[in-house]
Specification:
This protein has 102 residues and is mainly alpha-helical. It has three helices and no strands.
């Protein structure tokens, strides 16, 4: 399993835990306002904080990968301008043919 898959699994686990903690918080708040409520609230806040940090980390990873892909594409186009123009023309022709079929 790749690091992206592991991160997705952890994020889903954290989000599921947030839901469970929210349900526990609601049940506890109906029953009492003492220590049980405070403990459930603290656990909910900690889980929410972890989920937010994971989302930020995933977002940074996606941005980094996107920038790397853009750099690689830019380098390829600079190294192979005629091949790139040919591919672009072919894709344009194909799209034009598909649009023209209607």
């Amino acid at each position: 399993m790749s690091s992206a898959d592991n991160a997705k699994e952890k994020l889903m686990s954290d989000l599921n835990q947030i839901i469970k903690d929210a349900e526990a918080l609601l049940q506890t708040s109906e029953q009492q306002t003492g220590e049980g409520f405070k403990a459930a609230k603290a656990k909910f806040e900690a889980t929410l904080k972890n989920a937010k940090e994971e989302v930020i980390r995933l977002e940074e990873a996606v941005v980094t990968r996107t920038k790397d892909a853009a750099r690689a594409t830019d380098e390829y186009v600079k190294d192979n301008p005629w091949q790139s123009a040919g591919v672009a023309a072919g894709v344009g022709l194909l799209i034009g043919l598909l649009i023209g079929r209607k």
